[in-house]
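Page header: ASSEMBLY MODEL / three components / 886 residues total.
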Amino acid sequence: MNGIVSYGAYIPSHKIETGEIASVWGADGSAWAKNLNVYSKSVPGPDEDVITIAVEATRIAMKRAKLNGTKIGAIYTGSESHPYAVKPTSTIVAEAIGATPNLTAADFEFACKAGTAAIQTCLGIVGNKQVENGIAIGVDTSQGAPGDALEYSASAGGGTMIIGKEKVIATINHTTSYTTDTPDFWRREGQKYPRHGGRFTGKPAFFKHVMMCGKMIMDMAGSKPEDYDYVVTHQPNGKFPIRAAKSLGFTEEQYKTGLLTPRIGNTYSGAIFLGLSAILDIAKPGDRILAVAYGSGAGSDGFDLTVTDEIAKMDRSETVEDMISRMEIINYATYAKYRGKLNMGDSK
Amino acid sequence: MRDVSIIGVGITKFGELWDKSLRELGLETGLAAINDAGITSNDIDALYIGNMAAGSTLQQEHVSALIADYCGLANQNIPATRVEAASASGGLAIRQAYMAIAGGFIDVAVVGGAEKMTDVSDSESSYTVSMGSDEQWEAKAGATFTSLHAIIAQNHILEYGTTREQLSAVAAKNHYHASLNPMAQFPFALDPTAVSKSGMVSTPLRMLDCAPNSDGAAAVVLCASEKAQKYTDKAIKIIGSGQASDTLSLHHRKYLHRFPAINIAAKKAFEDCNKKPSDLDVIEVHDNFTISEIIALEEIGVFNRGEAAQKSMEGETRLGGIMPTNTSGGLKARGHAPGATGIAQIIELVKQLRGEAGDRQVENAKLALAENHGGTAATAVVHILEAE
Amino acid sequence: MSVPRFWRELDTRYNLIGSYCKITNTYHYPRRSFNPEAGRDSIGSMEDYQFKGTGTVVTATVVHQAQTGYEMFGPYCMAIIELDEGPRITSQIVDCEPNNVKSGMKVKSVFRKLGEDSESGILHYGTKFILSEKTNTEDSNEDTIENIEL
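Prediction written out in full:
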């Protein structure tokens, strides 16, 4: 059966703590950290962006699968912070992994679920034998406006899933989507920071879509929460995913491995890829995984996966936990410098 | 080959010359050199212009024609040639004129060097200097010109145990010399501890290890020696001239603590005149950084490898020492206007050999050497001058 | 930098593509079609070669006055690195405390943004290096204390 042939993750090596951000705005850091269940978030260096993160994650995935670029027939990169408004991220990734020129490529945007839409597209073109392997990437370096609630969580990171039919480490048994027009979060063309609907992002948006999609995928698979070893959902903060998982009938044992936002913040399109990567880092053959992505605007993509014997043969070093443990704390001044929040005027 | 002499010199003060343009600087020094030589414009057979960066700093190329025109030589249709080899442009322009005269093609040439480094911002002038290294694989990769010399300094330290105090002594000595030179950009003495405590630019090099990016111009008149007495009785003969190149990128060199191009150019110049380093009375070297002066002294052969730093510390390169070095103040304190620097070095030596160096006169100076290089010494030019 | 000037060297910068000389059995970076050691015989004998991206620090310096375009890093580490195959390269070493980088340390390549033409211009990507092993920060703390006592 078709599924995940390989995976790779990348998290930048800098982080800022919630308390440090709060102190700049005279806010109560421990209250913010507790309310959001976000204690630190990753920060990209001045030379890191969606493209560099996508390349690093994809190179890890290629190395793990011992694939060379000529085996890749498609690259789709999902992000809401592509460095170019016009010019694809995916072609740069293709060049950097030696996959050019015999492939198709495009960039996707669907808020935080653009990457899982790319997985579904890859499943389609692998399924109808258009390509041998397709690469789906979910990655973001999103920013919250200074002082906005989003500033405490918006972070950077991403992951790559190589979708194919040979040497699959996790079969994708079922996938489905739940999509409506729900304007809970958006960024207009040319605007630097996104806007959001405050508490409207909760019940009618994140919870409704994730819950509905979660139920649909389990109906499709004929499964119950207790059939799964792991569950991972989109995680805009550390609270929403726990509440959603519990409401669907899952336990802490099932959701804790894929729940990274408390330590790395909200990586947007990268979140479900990183959570799934953390699970694949330790999963054993036969484990079952339920994954439900969410993207504002709004929609959810659900996946039912089963880990295969192939995973035991794979070199799974460079884990998500390794990347989290190497993160070094920076202060707000450095964060502001790295994230381009200083007004340099025309001096440059 | 014919002998070639320097029969006239002219120089501006180096520094932040806000009110002077490149063409005015060229005219001013050209006229001064012509007056000093006692020639008229009708005597000039050719003009050579040393300039590194007019294209980057002034968006003006073709500066040979520009200066010829502004100096009133356009109506004589004199051949005018620009020479560019980063900071070695001036020294190399002299060598081109020297070869043309020695080869019998012309009799009299004016060689001018001029640079405007302050018509652009500090970051632009710094980047312009970086263009003397490999712009694509050094500068663009994040290496400043100072950082490349910092790597060289670290290797010199590793190889020979060169110390902070020894580097500071070089800058302090050059400032002392500049305090005796009214034409210097920084005509004041500097305590070596001030150098050691100045701001870090790129470890281990500090602000006062670095020469400034200056405006300035300098010009000399070169003449076939056999015709020199027609114009002047104070001609100074060029008895040796050498030039060598090396890899543009520092990382492609076998040794990171040496400047082999200087060594080869110096050997060639010494061979020309059958002289040796110990015969020299006074020298000017390209101290764009303190470490560069130390390495230049070793490459020329004034001191053994690994000994120049200590000799500098002991005062042997100071006026009164065994080899007075950079009596003008050097690039560090006279100032460094890339296209003019190599010519300014020659002018200092002409003044020393004529006995016109005032308070900084080296007693009985007869033989002098100038070393001028570009980039991380990917081009080096050495000239040896003798009083007639 | 003009678009074609960067574009024509994309694979050299992205994937560390250099040259291997079949005559002298030596490696060269960046790519060149002529090996000075082998002279004109090398023309036509230079093959593309993708470097592994691992190497050793030859000499490192901490840049306090940044190069144009590198202002947001300062201070940062610039180094001459010897790739395992032999050739040397000048590169920034990122994601580290710059003062901790020493000669002999092992490094590996990473894909990073090198710069941009302007806010509206093309973005430049390529290779930089990181330390292969995390440096021992306890050691550097001791160094700092020693420095203060001096």
